[in-house]
Automatic annotation (TrEMBL):
NCBIfam families: F420_MSMEG_2256. It is an enzyme of class 1 (oxidoreductase). GO terms for molecular function: oxidoreductase activity, acting on paired donors, with incorporation or reduction of molecular oxygen. It comes from Natrinema longum. SUPFAM superfamilies: Bacterial luciferase-like. Keywords: Oxidoreductase. CDD domains: Tetrahydromethanopterin_reductase. Its EC number is 1.-.-.-. Residues 18-309 form the Luciferase-like domain. This is TIGR03617 family F420-dependent LLM class oxidoreductase.
Length: 329
């Protein structure tokens, strides 16, 4: 396990992503990530590349199935070129409802389909670099036409890292087999990472004759912080609500079960069906908050992150707002 790298999330294009990334680099963060919620994950990155010099930059995460792998490849290639090799392509599947009802995209065999996205991207990158002829055939994607007009040509940093988000065992194992990193969900704990996630990633690395050192485990934990007791209490209650929200979804119940809280998850699920949100938060105990979240004053966050995830994860996302308090380099 490498030294723990500290990253930050930065806002989308409407939120001065370039300026935020510039501050992150000044504070000493190792990387910045852009989400894809009410914004496009890729659009901020030309600005980030222009405003920074050394910090790594990536998507956490861009939706994989709403774009053709060829379109993803063109975008990633451009950003790798502009950033001098600092760009990381972070991809995820989202869930069935959002794919079908928000994006009108078919949801079929998401795990094997994500595998083909990663495989075809690697193949297309090799084509762009002049190392292969375009010829990929899978169950979900096929690519066979590339002419000189549409070939962007080689770049100085063609080995674009690919991270995928993973909650279920298939995707976590896939990260170990094919990818450079695993973007772990915030609904996670150091214990679950060490006891469940890392061994599952290792199953994938074993299949591909790789090492666990080849795959960066990137944590994005809930954070409880604030300068005053009142600020920390507000932060704690917000985290409590988020734990209740995610805990109501059966997709995440394995994490609760790992800590002996599966019955709480079932209660949360039942309450969520009636939208009884306040009652849901009341089921999340202080012990649960302390287990899921890193809690510290701003100037102690780095030490708390290292205590929680040092030797377990390779990267951890912490709040940019307090970077000047806990980063000194």
């Amino acid at each position: 396990m490498s030294d723990l790298r500290i990253d930050a999330m930065v806002p989308g294009l409407a939120g001065d992503a370039g300026g935020a990334a510039e501050r992150a680099e000044e504070f000493g963060f190792d990387g910045v990530w852009t989400p894809e919620t009410d914004n496009d994950a890729f659009l901020p990155h030309p600005l980030i590349a222009d405003r920074t010099e050394e910090i790594q930059q990536g998507t956490r995460i861009a939706l994989a199935f709403t774009r053709s792998p060829m379109a993803l490849a063109y975008t990633a290639w451009d950003l790798a070129r502009q950033s001098d090799g600092r760009f990381v392509l972070g991809l995820g599947t989202q869930v069935k409802g959002h794919n079908e009802r928000r994006f009108s995209v078919d949801w079929e065999s998401p795990g094997p389909r994500l595998r083909e996205v990663v495989e075809s991207l690697r193949h297309i990158f090799a084509v762009f670099q002049g190392e292969a002829e375009l010829d990929y055939e899978g169950d979900h994607y096929s690519f066979s036409l590339m002419t000189e007009t549409f070939d962007p040509g080689p770049i100085d940093h063609p080995e674009i890292p690919i991270y995928i988000a993973g909650v279920n065992e298939y995707n976590i194992r896939l990260a170990g087999e094919l990818c450079d990193g695993l973007a772990m969900h915030p609904f996670n704990t150091p214990s679950y990472t060490d006891d469940v996630v890392a061994p599952t990633v290792a199953e994938g690395t074993d299949r591909a004759d790789r090492s666990l050192e080849d795959v960066a485990l990137s944590a994005s934990p809930f954070v409880v912080t604030g300068e005053t007791d009142e600020e920390r209490e507000r932060s704690r209650e917000e985290v409590r609500r988020r734990i209740a929200f995610y805990g109501s979804t059966r997709t995440y119940h394995d994490v609760l079960e790992h800590h002996g809280w599966r019955d709480v998850g079932e209660e949360l699920h039942d309450l969520s069906k009636d939208q009884r949100w306040e009652e849901m938060a009341e089921l999340v105990t202080d012990e649960m908050v302390a287990t899921f979240a890193i809690e510290a004053r701003p100037d102690e966050l780095l030490a708390a992150a290292r205590e929680s995830y040092g030797g377990i994860a390779d990267r951890v996302v912490l709040p940019l707002d307090h970077g000047d308090a806990f980063l000194t380099e």
